[in-house]
Amino acid sequence: MIAILLFPELSGTTDTWSPSTDTCQLPIMDRPILQHVLESLGDLGVTTLHTLLPSFEIERQKFLGDGSRWGMSILTWYGLELIDECLFESLQRPADSAEPVLIGPADCLPNFSELRNSDSSKILVLDPNNDSRNWISLTATDATSFFQFGSLPNLPRVQINSWLDSGTPEKLLQSQSAILSGVFPLTHAFAQEKEPGIWIGRHANVHPTARLIPPVYVGTSAHIERNAVVGPNAVISKRDIVGESTIVENAMVGYHTAVGPHLRLNDGVLLGDMLHSTRNATYLRICDSILATEI
Fold this sequence. Notes:
Layout: E1 2-6, E2 27-28, E3 31-32, H1 33-44, E4 48-53, H2 58-64, E5 73-78, H3 83-90, E6 101-105, E7 108-110, E8 122-125, E9 135-138, H4 140-149, E10 157-159, E11 163-165, H5 169-180, E12 192-195, E13 198-200, E14 205-206, E15 211-212, E16 216-218, E17 223-224, E18 229-230, E19 234-236, E20 241-242, E21 247-253, E22 257-259, E23 264-271, E24 274-277, E25 282-285, E26 292-294
Parallel strand pairs: 1-4, 1-6, 4-5, 8-10, 13-16, 14-17, 15-18, 16-19, 17-20, 18-21, 19-21, 20-22, 21-23
Antiparallel strand pairs: 2-3, 6-9, 7-11, 8-9, 12-13, 22-26, 23-24, 24-25
């Protein structure tokens, strides 16, 4: 099977994420959403992956590598306008010409298990209001026809009920909720479930007086201090610190972030000193390192 991933520009052109935010590297549970995508494609049997990046970006390139980490071969293209050329080129090899093709954005992932025993081309609808968030599944015949004639028949649209998406802070929180509640099944375990609905990563330190309210995930080497309350629907990423008596609810704290004591974080995503609110679709920089900072 062949897959083609379209990488978005680094954030800064929209109001939902702060400049330089890479939506492909935002964490959902213990790993970036891009890793969820790559692992799912590997599970589907993808052997050749074409990645279209807007330009050369060293961090993305290092993460992708040559594909051996993911059990596939990765070929990288620079310039999203090259998609037609990429698709045409990918089917010129006899070994690939009979393979089905998946095309989608690198920062969202449909639940492919909803498409079992499906052998027809279709559009996988994640967001009916934004076609750029949808995936396309092409049979080998339709893929070949597309590359020969440059057009496709009207493909049926299939609504996907569970998905992961980091396009906005709100969608990121919805995605973590889908995993915590079991709506979106993960084939790669992310942590040990210590109690029903409570997952704690390796070397995490939770103070005996702190409360974890399910569903909740505490990442590897995270530190939850005295009298803190985390959950429900909260994710504390690896190496985070949640201060004394702080409450984190319906929120996500990104990698290597310290949240100060006696605070309340809800309905938002905190990435270092950048707080992204899902209530008013905006962000602000926290200038006081006692309140929040990157560590």
